[in-house]
Design a protein that fits this description.
Radius of gyration: 21 Å
Distance between the termini: 35 Å
Largest sheet: 6 strands, parallel
Shape: globular
Length: 432
């Protein structure tokens, strides 16, 4: 027997397993971490991809808007690299008075003042003007045009009126956009709800009953109509520069992508694919997946992304054990209002008729629950809400494993373990 430990919130959960039953610890190989972040950021913005250096892109007198991720993306550690970017702007003739920050929250709730301090750091919070994007107030958004796929593009007025817009954030695999980062700071980041919903409904198939569109999936940047549409919308705004962080599975800085908003982002996705790509040796009866701890597992809306590699590592009808503390499991509240369907086809119809991102994520979750048993290791106070999502809640990983063994009901069962389910690209064929 061997003890296996997985991150859970700010702590961990552990389970004793027969080592012979564990097929694979599916985790990205550790890479060389960035040890001097300031040097890495300055090297990136002074030697960018597809663009002149940042100090040549801006000029004195420019009103600059920087888009930053909201508190649900705290793992990007914006507060650590944003001051370096602002210092470069200051040294290029752009004073603090000409720099403002928009929290690109999409349809997420507004961030509290304390959360904004976490996002940008207390020093920049006190120095710069910081605004929340509001996707629902059309008076705060302006129309820029329509994409090739018919999406009407309404974006935050403050960004549109700026002389220069800089995108920040992090690049990581995304459930249906292929990857986060880059153009997602604009759509959905600072887009109106109508724009976001029109774009995101493309994640569904073209026909009722078809469910999820297979081309809008994790790590796919080519022929992904959701991502392509985001790019069209971002091109209408035409940001002047991008700075995106790439983190390793431990949440430490691994690389910095900087330069043209599309070319530098695309190069960043290649780095992530090489860094996180893992070949699965075989599919197992049980897959244990952790979100990687806080802040990635602060709610189920984000944390359920750990379900995806677990499903890929499982035999059909197997058991997913998701290790997610979820201190704020009901955020956003509209997510849980979607879990009241007995008929999955009716749920799909309603997602199409009234698309929202939480509704889609709930539908995706239910689709997985149709194929697999999902056992959720979470706080006891979350149990009632967890059951609404078709998961079976338990308090400990050891308890989850005992339950999974009964469900599988075979002595020769196998297990795959995914310690960082939100930072792992699983391949059933050789990784690129």
């Amino acid at each position: 027997m061997k003890e296996y430990k997985l991150k859970y919130g700010k702590g961990e959960q552990s389970v004793m397993l027969d080592e012979s039953k564990v097929l694979q610890i599916i985790d990205a190989a550790p890479g060389e971490k960035i040890t001097d972040l300031k040097k890495a950021v300055l090297d990136a913005v002074r030697n960018p991809v597809g663009s002149a250096p940042l100090r040549e892109v801006v000029k004195q007198g420019d009103k600059v808007v920087i888009l930053v991720s909201d508190i649900t993306r705290a793992w990007t550690r914006t507060s650590e690299y944003l001051p370096i970017v602002v210092e470069e702007l200051n040294n290029s003739g752009i004073p603090d008075a000409d720099i403002s920050v928009i929290v690109a929250a999409g349809t997420h709730r507004a961030n509290t003042d304390e959360e904004k301090k976490i996002i940008v750091g207390e020093d920049l919070y006190n120095r710069l003007k910081i605004y929340d994007h509001d996707a629902y107030d059309m008076d705060k958004n302006v129309y820029l045009g329509t994409t090739r796929r018919g999406t009407p593009v309404y974006l935050d007025k403050r960004a549109v009126e700026a002389d220069k817009v800089i995108l920040t954030g992090g690049i990581t695999p995304h459930l249906f956009a292929g990857f986060g980062g880059g153009r997602k700071s604009v759509l959905p980041g600072i887009a109106a709800a109508e724009t976001i919903n029109h774009n995101h409904v493309m994640a569904l198939s073209d026909t009722i009953g078809g469910g999820i569109n297979p081309d809008t999936c994790l790590a796919k940047t080519w022929d992904n109509r959701v991502s392509d549409d985001m790019c069209d919308a971002t091109a209408l705004l035409n940001p002047c520069f991008l700075v995106n962080a790439i983190m390793d599975a431990d949440g430490d800085f691994y690389a910095v992508a900087a330069g043209h908003w599309h070319e530098a982002w695309l190069e960043g996705t290649r780095i992530v694919t090489k860094q996180q790509g893992v070949k699965a040796k075989a599919k197992a009866d049980i897959a244990i997946s952790s979100g990687g701890g806080f802040p990635r597992d602060m709610n189920l809306y984000q944390g359920m992304k750990a379900y995806v590699p677990a499903a890929m590592a499982l035999k059909e009808g197997g058991v997913i054990i998701a290790v997610l503390e979820c201190e704020d499991i009901a955020e956003p509240p509209v997510f849980f209002n979607c879990f009241h369907y007995d008929d999955l086809k009716q749920m799909e119809q309603d997602v199409r008729d009234g698309f929202s991102i939480p509704f889609y994520v709930a539908f995706y979750t239910c689709c997985l629950a149709e194929r697999f048993t999902i056992i959720l290791v979470t706080r006891p106070e979350n149990f009632e809400k967890a059951r609404k999502t078709r998961a079976v809640p338990v308090a400990t990983l050891q308890e989850a494993m005992a339950m999974a063994e009964k469900i599988v009901d075979r002595e020769d069962y196998t297990v795959n373990i995914i310690p960082h389910g939100m930072a792992c690209l699983l391949y059933t064929s050789p990784s690129p």
